[in-house]
Fold this protein.
Amino acid sequence: MTGPGRDAETGPEHGTGPEHGTGPGPQPRHPGAHPGAHPRPATRPLLALAALCATLFTAAAVTVAVRHGAPLAPEQAVHHWALAHRGEPLRSVAGALTATGSGPVPYLMAVLAGLLAGRGARGRLRAVVCAVAVLAIGQAVRYGLMELLARPRPTPADWAGRASGYSFPSGHATTSALAAGLLAWGIARYAGRGPARTWCAVLALWAVAVGLTRVYLGVHWPGDVLGGWLLAGTVLSLALLLERYALPDRDAADGVPEPDGAGPV
């Protein structure tokens, strides 16, 4: 006897119906069997997240512009606390950790994300290109905003690490958050959302830690790091919304028929 729950799993999308005969279709596959075994993120939550991150980032950017880059009192307090509590071995640990938030590491993470997310040689290549493009676009937007707002960094006498350019938004915070989000996406597509939760938590902690090292090393104000996280959240949310257009052959590569009129682009 077949109930409503069974009917929901045995339509045309699962290999039964007029197009596939009257026999039972294949059983649902394990979420970790391949990259296409779980549904895409819902549109409305992603739109809400993108709007929230963009709104908060805009508020932070406007605050920076109105104050001509001058730090807020809480930012100054956190900066002074970091200077007063900076010592070894934390200083060396922070220096090593902050180095992973820029340079080749984030791009290697983006490449790995694409390799995990794609299926087949063509799918992996396309996913890698998309992941690297998201990271590069995020970097370009961040750099343009940084030059536009031109917020000064804390005084160089307080620095305990290397830094260049203006302060808002933080490049390390933006880049590490983007890389962490992309790799979390790749792991989720490869292993499924459930098994990927642990790795997602680890990646989130890494991105947060990289951002905090910028404040601890005295090269950024806290608002710069917060701005970087919000910008990364906006870019990642929009990228997920565009995923179905950038990777339209996801279901087709898994042998699942596409909706009428849809096909590889």
User: Anything to note?
Assistant: The CA atoms of residues 138 and 235 lie 6 Å apart. Residues 1-38, 250-265 have pLDDT under 50 and may be disordered. The first helix runs from residue 4 to 7.
